[in-house]
Design a protein that fits this description.
Helix content: 25-40%
Distance between the termini: 6 Å
Number of strands: 3
Radius of gyration: 10 Å
Order of helices and strands: HEHHEE
Number of helices: 3
Strand order of the largest sheet: 1-2-3
């Protein structure tokens, strides 16, 4: 998942939201739109339990891990 995040960052994606299998947010963000780019690179490492992450939503597009 981290490699996928890096690839999308290189394509100009600037906001992200990580969700679990139920669609609940695993990131601390205010509504849809997610976190600023400066925080994205370490987002997976900062999750309480990274293994619970099932998808990353980038500006309305979903990437399944």
């Amino acid at each position: 998942m981290q490699a996928a995040i890096e690839k999308l960052l290189s394509q100009g994606i600037t906001k992200v939201e990580v969700v679990d299998k139920n669609g609940s947010s695993l990131t601390k963000s205010e509504g849809f739109g997610g976190l600023p780019q400066s925080e994205i690179k370490t987002i997976v490492n900062d999750l309480e339990d990274p293994s619970k992450a099932s998808a990353v939503i980038f500006l309305g597009r979903e990437l399944i891990d």
